[in-house]
Design a protein that fits this description.
3-stranded antiparallel beta sheet
């Protein structure tokens, strides 16, 4: 996971989403966290307008808005986690 050093407004987390399921999936009110060594640096609930077809991968950038992260921390080599079930 590549996390850019935070600007004044956002953190951009570029990811590659793999759907290994036998059905299409979409995100709706999914809480995502960005952590490094189990310490959460950012979290936000997302509803991107995407559907990932079964057995495919798709690049996506999740943009954490101001207020959802600690701007005084360095963000690199972290892990982006999806909390709960994907629909």
């Amino acid at each position: 996971m590549a996390g850019k050093k935070p600007s004044r407004r956002t953190i951009d987390c570029c990811s590659l989403i793999h759907n290994t399921c036998k059905q299409d999936i979409s995100f709706h009110n999914q809480k995502l966290t960005y952590s490094i060594h189990d310490k959460i640096f950012a979290e936000h609930t997302f509803s991107p307008p995407i559907t990932i077809e079964k057995q495919t991968s798709m690049p996506w950038t999740f943009i954490f808005p101001v207020g959802s992260f600690n701007i005084n921390e360095e963000f690199s080599n972290g892990i982006l986690k999806i909390e709960g079930e994907i629909q």
